[in-house]
Amino acid sequence: MLNNPKKLFIITAVVIVLVAVFFILERTKISPEVFLEASTDKMFYESGEEVVLSVSWTNSGSVDTCVSDMDAGSIRFISFTRDGEQVETRSAPSYFITSFIEMLEVSLKTVVPGESMDIVMVSRVDPGLGRQALRTTTLEDGRGIGMFYDVETPGDYNLELIYEYPGPPLAGCPSIFQGATNIVRATFTVN
Amino acid sequence: MCDNIKDNKKYVFRGALKVLLFVATFFLWSPQADARVTVDGNPRFRDEVNECLGIYRNTPGIIRDVIRELENSNNEHKIVEGNGWHNTPNNRDSAFDGTGTGTVTEVSSDRLETLKESIGALKDKDFCTALLHEMWHAVDADRGGWSNEKIDDVWVDEIEATIFQNFLHAIRGVSPRTIYGGEDISRHLILTDAEREDLEEEVEEEVSIMVVVINGKYYPVEQFTRCCGTLDACACDGYHLHSMHRGPVFSLDGSSITDPDPQGCGFGKIEDVEVKKIEVRVSVLDNYQELVQ
User: Half-sphere exposure (CA, 13 Å, Cβ side) for A79?
Assistant: First the structure.
């Protein structure tokens, strides 16, 4: 059969068409998409003043998506500098009202396309650093680890953050956004 | 299987022992003027926290003892309003290595109600119970007793905190908590009858005494005498307190002070001196009596 050039041509053409259709379907496959935004309430703060960072993640895709309704675990600072240098940080484990993994699990909420989850992160005095600090929490070996970032020392601050859900799936959430969002930048000055 | 049972017994014993050891530490308790538990939040939040601590501060038992230990610690323990519902040490290493550290506890009654809708194991937790669960972590950090050990995928520290929480459940007449983080931990929460009786006996051995409060320390009143205002030889224009035998007076923690003004108003005029009734453990009183004999 393969000796017949006409038939060989038709088979090759069919295979090429099938492969092309497969790649087109893959590219157009519907997947959840989330877009992150962040800003501080002021451009300038006095040293010791609370820094307020508003963060929102929006379902920018075309299907219902589950995202976390808390910043703990999901918001990560990938860069946090003052005058170009890494700010002082400290870390410490936390015990939560239930396991941190369960806290993450129940934090998942469904957002419809175009809907946002809005969170306000407010610095407070961290006795460990002895200064105003913004806090994030990461999941490590089933434990929530708090990371504190100094935002009291005067200088020009530049931070970059992402949203990424690190917890387990939840039965009621078939479509969880588990990748990393876009990187967003916020800047402010402490005098 | 046998090894697992041994391990479980070891942890249950360790948890119970830690709770019992805590009772022993109460014997070293001495009240100070500066409260080391601070509350930061709006007035409603502060009232909620203070009401909770107020209820159990004077209720004999381990919960009172934990509150008092925190209030008399050298480390500051802050309770702040926030949605986190967590307890975090001020110094990571000191929480684990026996040195001890202060903590920050972030709690919110509104957030608790939201969490209760999703987490069945929290259904019997009111704000005060949940707060005091975190206070166990605070006192554990204060002693530097945090652990990195897990059993059945649950941190041993959380099993201890749940044992502590269940004392509160018993007082409130609600079922003990047996689930943590979705895991059944019921078999790790069991105290033997003997351990429970020991604990209850320790907790109940108390007597009421009257004390004079000086610089936050408690001095039994029997060591003082009231002098007669203008009729005595002292240069003092009112009733006042002197040492009964003109020697030092001893506080319940064993420290002593001498009469600061033996020719004048002594330890102060009656209206300026705080005298109150307190509950004190028999062994603390025994130690004091040995000291003054």
Answer: 14
Amino acid letter at B249? V
Q: Give the CATH architecture of domain A31-190.
A: Sandwich (2.60)
B83 close to A (CB below 8 A): yes
Q: Which of A98, A102, A146 has its CB closest to that of B88?
A: A146
Alpha carbons A22 and A19: distance in angstroms, whole number? 5
Distance from C-alpha of A109 to C-alpha of A116, rounded to nearest angstrom: 11
Alpha-helical (H) ranges within A29-176 are 100-106
d(CA B270, CA A151): 51
Q: In chain A, which residue ranges form alpha helices assigned H by DSSP? A: 5-28, 100-106
Q: Across chain A, how many H-helices and E-strands are there?
A: 2, 14
Cross-chain Cβ contact A102/B119 below 8 Å:
yes
Could you give the ipTM of this predicted complex?
0.82
Q: What pTM value is reported for the model?
A: 0.69
Check A97 against B85: CB less than 8 A apart: yes
Return the H-helix or E-strand segment holding B184: strand B183-184
Q: What is the pLDDT of residues A95-111, one digit of tens each?
A: 999 999 999 999 999 99
